[in-house]
Amino acid sequence: MTAATHSTGTHGPGTHHPGTTRTSTRRLPGIVALGLSRTRLELVSFFRERDAVVFIFAYPILMLAIFASVFGQDGATAGGSGEDAVSFAQYFLPGMIATGMMLTSFQALATSLAVERDDGSLKRLRTTPLPPVAFFLGKIGQVLVVSLAQTTLLVAAGAVLFGIEVPGSLDAWVTFAWVFVLGTAVGTVCGIAFSSVPRSGRSVTAVVLPVVLVLQFTSGVFFVFSDLPTWMQRFAEVFPLKWMAQGMRSVFLPDSAQAAEVSGSWQHGPTAVILVAWLILGLVVCVRTFRWRRRDDG
């Protein structure tokens, strides 16, 4: 008995002793691999919700068609006169791109995360080995893919249905890229942060939708921004949607159209600064307020 005990004790940790059970530990893939895997899962879940998919992709196109038709009757134009004038379809397209980005990021995440928290999905997910970073990378990846697909479809519809010219210069597409990335990032972190505001999944629509509508009507999405009352312009300048829409106008409108802006310029510098400021603020609020459990669940 003593010999057997001594023999077992002399074996190193890497040897397999007959009659014993080998215990192996599988390592999880890296954060990037887990994030990509989670992105695929989020996309599959998203496209299974057909009603939401139709709404998210069709809403900007329908709004563009409605407002361009209403305001563009009898050849009416926006943004001034002469060479500064553009069709209402062309003027509203950048705003619809911006509001589409907000729908796929801020509204979609604020709603889905609140529902997942309420039904216990987030609580159960937190008990799995999946790192929180990978979970949020999956959400971000899903937002980027859906936003890009939605924007591509909207621009194509604008070109086909209303004859809107697609920008041809590299500078315009560089501006599009940084406004798109920053705007989507801001919408994502603010959506995650705002998901903790609704007290339950049942009340989330009533809480999120008014915020979205107010920002749409005050940020130059549905109306020419320079035609809005001054107090409304000042209000909109605090929030990112106004700057996202203005940044997109600098991409899809001619340079001469910036004279019709309130400031008389596209304000690329302030646009970048304000979007980055909202991104940092959203990240701070996310870290401090995000909850995996319902309020009544500890």
Distance, first to last CA: 53 Å
Number of strand segments: 2
What is the alpha-carbon Rg in Å? 25 Å
Q: Give the structural class.
A: mainly alpha
Walk across the major sheet and give the strand order: 1-2
Helix content: 55-70%
Helix tally equals 11
How would you describe the overall organization of this protein?
The protein is an all-alpha fold. It has eleven helices and two strands, in the order H-H-H-E-E-H-H-H-H-H-H-H-H. The protein has helices at 2-9, 31-48, 50-71, 88-118, 121-126, 132-162, 170-194, 204-218, 230-236, 240-252, 268-289, and strands at 77-78, 86-87. Strands 1-2 form a two-stranded antiparallel sheet. Helix 2 crosses helix 6 and helix 4 runs parallel beside helix 7. Residues 1-17 have low confidence and may be disordered.
